[in-house]
Write a structure and sequence with these properties.
binds D-galactaro-1,5-lactone, 9 helices, binds 1,4-dihydronicotinamide adenine dinucleotide, seven-stranded parallel beta sheet, alpha/beta
């Protein structure tokens, strides 16, 4: 696939979308923006629902690739997740296929494998082919997205890199995030690698920085050319002083998905 230049960024009004709107143009991309919500100071952004195939057809026409961030990003009743994340992602793939888009970078999540026990002591890092164990309907929708991506590669030759993002925020804000943090700058590096690596088929990668306390294996991400530069460790002493060391007997800290396993944050809309 030739290096993509015009990229549709879905979910462009969201937290990660806003960070990537700032960073991805630095890699030479022309971004076309899409979200359910209008975006201030972006009059050309497409305001559309993922469940509107006609609007998606227009939005994907002529783009070289898609970075798909749109959707419900926390736990919600199944019916809402079904619409936005499952049907919505299907519609995007279907319109991308119809318009001949070559590649999608799909924002999967650690919550697709959130019920996986977190490694302790000398345990090996969690491999990318660990069985999927969603911790929520939200995580289940990300697991669906990964299967959808595999189907569209196998059946239609539409490539995807599914990025199981850890926690992509300007700074880690919890002890758990010390292991999962993806700095925004590393996030842009990873998306750029996912957009430009050759022959990805459907590749699943974990998305985090080179954290000292890493829980998962970044080999498949590095194979795309991703070279993380950040590490959450400078934040560790302060966060541990405030929140304490993780308690292995606390169920909310025993799994990759953290408190999503016991008390998931609910999508507010
Ligand atoms: P966010 O909630 O801030 O942004 C999501 C955006 O999607 C919102 O602007 C929302 O308006 C839009 N959206 C929701 N439903 C839509 C629909 N039906 N049609 C069109 N747009 C719709 O979430 P955030 O943090 O920016 O995450 C972006 C993506 O990355 C999400 O898919 C999330 O699941 C995934 N992710 C994010 C992580 C993070 O650390 N920020 C970690 C793991 C995954
Ligand atoms: C996610 O998948 C969420 O979208 C994000 O808001 C964070 O909660 C992140 O996981 C996390 O696990 O920290």
């Amino acid at each position: 696939m030739p290096a993509p230049r015009t990229v549709l960024l879905t979910g462009a009004a969201g937290g990660l979308g806003t960070l990537m709107r700032g960073l991805l143009p630095g890699y030479g991309y022309d971004l076309r923006l899409l979200d359910l919500r209008p975006i201030e100071d972006e009059p050309d952004a497409v305001t559309a629902d993922l469940c509107d195939p006609a609007a998606l057809r227009e939005a994907v026409r002529g783009v070289d690739a898609i970075v798909h961030l749109a959707g419900i990003s926390l736990e919600a009743p199944f019916e809402k997740i079904l619409k936005a994340n499952i049907e919505g992602t299907y519609h995007l793939y279907e319109e991308a296929r119809a318009e001949g888009v070559g590649r999608i970078v799909f924002a999967s999540s650690n919550h697709a494998v959130g019920r996986t026990p977190r490694p302790r002591g000398a345990d090996p890092l969690i491999p990318v082919d660990t069985p999927r164990r969603p911790d929520t309907f939200y995580g289940l929708s990300k697991s669906f997205g990964e299967d959808l991506a595999q189907l569209y590669w196998d059946r239609h030759g539409l490539e995807t890199v599914s990025v199981r993002i850890g926690s992509c925020f300007p700074e880690p804000t919890s002890v758990r995030m010390l292991s999962l943090w993806l700095s925004p700058a590393d996030g842009a590096r990873l998306f750029h690698a996912a957009l430009t690596a050759e022959h990805v088929g459907h590749t699943v990668v974990y998305g985090s920085s080179a954290n000292t306390r890493l829980w998962w294996d970044l080999t498949s991400a590095r194979a795309l050319g991703y070279e993380p530069r950040d590490d959450s460790e400078p934040y560790a002493a302060k966060l541990i002083a405030e929140q304490g060391e993780p308690d292995p007997d606390d169920e909310a800290q025993a799994y990759l998905g953290g408190h999503f396993v016991t008390d998931p944050p609910i999508w507010p809309y």
